[in-house]
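Notes for week 9. Today we move from apo structures to complexes. The key idea is that a small molecule is not decoration. When we ask for a structure prediction with magnesium ion present, the ligand SMILES becomes part of the input, just like the chain. The input block below holds both the sequence and the ligand string. Read it once before you look at the output, and try to guess where the molecule might sit.
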Amino acid sequence: MQWLLDLDGVVWRMDTPIDGSVEAVNRLLAQGHDVRFVTNNSSLSRSQYVAKLGRMGVEAQRDQILTSAMAAATLVKPGDRVLAIGELGLVEELEAVGADLVVPRSLEDVVGIDSVVLGWYRKFSYIDMSNACVAILSGARFVATNADPTYPLERLVVPGTGALVASVVTATSVSPTVAGKPEDPMVGLLRPLLEEHTIMVGDRLSTDGRFAARLGVEFGLVSSGIQEAHDHEIPVSLAAHSLAEIVNMRLV
Ligand SMILES: [Mg+2]
């Protein structure tokens, strides 16, 4: 069976594994299941995700990691002049497709560039916001890695990429093309990898649940991360407190 696992709020909260998740993932891997980690968090690079999983005791390969930064990079062509506002994970994926990353020293430098790609950026400033808005109002395409409004820390919840995106939307009245779950670019990344029996496990109905529905796979909802209001339009195959519970329900 194939397991598509969200990371934040499913495998871990920030730097702390969620109870039983490491053992659950290792159980799936030991039994030969095809496990893929599908995250809207563009901050870490694929190598950093492999290392983070490794520190927690999960031996993952680079090709098991799918991020919203990878999905965003599919929207960029080699040689495109791109303003990347994000962390290493975003920068690496854009460089990998041959984007020409603009490092603006003044607002003039972003006029006429091809695209702005905005991801989760914990140093996001007024200057970044201004660069994005000036570029977009001068014709650059606006791409957001994801639109998650919040991010689950260990005990508290902080603003996610969607909150940064909202500031740019407010100033430009331009809506972005969103790359991550549940949108087309991420669907396009996953489709060729899908197996016959697949379940997506996630904490967000609006991203993970909709994504599963769009892929036509089962959805396992966990309450170990962000808890959203119920939406009867989004099918839930299994609901549980944690990934460990979902795995227990499926592997008898
Ligand atoms: Mg999540």
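The first strand starts at residue 2 and ends at 5.
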